[in-house]
Design a protein that fits this description.
Blueprint: H1 2-43
Transmembrane segments: 12-32
Protein name: Preprotein translocase subunit YajC
Organism: Acinetobacter entericus
Length: 44
Amino acid sequence: MPHMTHNYLLGLVALVVSFIVCFYVPLTYAWVKIREQQRNQNKS
Protein backbone atom coordinates (compact mmCIF):
# COMPACT_ATOMS: atom_id res chain seq x y z
CA MET A 1 0.00 0.00 0.00
CA PRO A 2 2.74 2.56 0.76
CA HIS A 3 3.98 2.06 -2.81
CA MET A 4 0.57 3.04 -4.22
CA THR A 5 0.43 6.09 -1.94
CA HIS A 6 3.93 7.05 -3.08
CA ASN A 7 2.89 6.81 -6.74
CA TYR A 8 -0.19 8.93 -5.99
CA LEU A 9 1.95 11.51 -4.21
CA LEU A 10 4.45 11.51 -7.08
CA GLY A 11 1.64 12.02 -9.61
CA LEU A 12 0.21 14.84 -7.53
CA VAL A 13 3.61 16.54 -7.32
CA ALA A 14 4.10 16.14 -11.07
CA LEU A 15 0.66 17.64 -11.69
CA VAL A 16 1.36 20.62 -9.42
CA VAL A 17 4.80 21.21 -10.98
CA SER A 18 3.43 21.03 -14.53
CA PHE A 19 0.59 23.41 -13.57
CA ILE A 20 3.05 25.89 -12.05
CA VAL A 21 5.28 25.70 -15.14
CA CYS A 22 2.37 26.10 -17.57
CA PHE A 23 0.95 28.98 -15.53
CA TYR A 24 4.01 30.93 -14.41
CA VAL A 25 6.19 30.68 -17.54
CA PRO A 26 3.71 32.57 -19.81
CA LEU A 27 2.92 34.94 -16.94
CA THR A 28 6.60 35.75 -16.40
CA TYR A 29 7.14 36.08 -20.17
CA ALA A 30 4.19 38.47 -20.49
CA TRP A 31 5.41 40.47 -17.47
CA VAL A 32 8.89 40.83 -19.00
CA LYS A 33 7.38 41.96 -22.33
CA ILE A 34 5.16 44.54 -20.57
CA ARG A 35 8.16 45.84 -18.61
CA GLU A 36 10.13 46.17 -21.86
CA GLN A 37 7.29 48.09 -23.51
CA GLN A 38 7.06 50.43 -20.52
CA ARG A 39 10.81 51.02 -20.65
CA ASN A 40 10.65 51.76 -24.39
CA GLN A 41 7.78 54.20 -23.87
CA ASN A 42 9.69 55.96 -21.09
CA LYS A 43 12.75 56.33 -23.34
CA SER A 44 10.95 57.89 -26.33
